[in-house]
# Entry
Amino acid sequence: MTADIIDGKAFAATVRAKVAEHVARLKAEHGITPGLAVILVGEDPASEVYVRNKGKQTVECGMNSYEHKLDPDTSEADLLALIDQLNNDPAVHGILCQLPLPKHLNEDLVINSIAPAKDVDGFHISNVGLLATGQKSMVPCTPLGCLMMLRDKHGSLSGMNAVVVGRSNIVGKPMAQLLLQDSCTVTIAHSRTKDIEALCRQADILVAAVGRPEMITGEWVKPGATIIDVGINRIPAPEKGEGKMKLVGDVDFDSAAAIAGAITPVPGGVGPMTIACLLANTVTACCRAASLPEPEGLTA
Ligand code: GUN
# Structure
């Protein structure tokens, strides 16, 4: 068997097109332009690239982008004051504070100071609790993107065995909540899980989010399973020349694709969906703030 490749790049383009369409309607019919504020503290090169891409795609969808670049030694009080100002700014519908933050800043405190209705990352404890109890919330972008791709592939996920490898607050835990919400039987596996291979072989849906390059191989995969690879790992690629690097997922693509029914590649799978879902969450937040109907197909 050779797996179908789930094209996250193309899927993300359709999500962005839906976002742009909804933004155009909000402008034309209600005179509202959704706005996303992104805060970057410090000069982490990878974070700078993410933030630049977020800003660019926000504008391409017709929304306003507000970028706040702060010095690496910004005090917690100054960062909280900026968040308070954005919380109270009616032109800002979504606020994202790029993680990781410099060590001297308390990440939990900062995240929980963002107004839950503007928390387009879905990391605020209120949104975590709302998601866990099946109430309307802001849903973390990467798991939301994974869910959209799974629903597109399978229609209903009801009754499927799902194994999520990884228990982070950003991906593993919210992913498990979303799959449970869609009536999957869900197991979260992690570094202490016994016989993780055998467990993964039970999975109709296998989500890999551990940050360990090519850890999951074809022997871990149930024939015909759908694999969602959230990992983005940069590793040496001597075959491309001395000092060259390449991106790989948490799944060993070739061996897994020989067994699976469908699989997301790295790059070009989950990655592009994350920013697309951030834009979707910003439109959703804007509609909720204005008590207007939410865009269809862009929420959990
Ligand atoms: N850093 C890496 N991924 C993310 C994300 O999804 N949101 C934020 N705020 N920071 C990140």
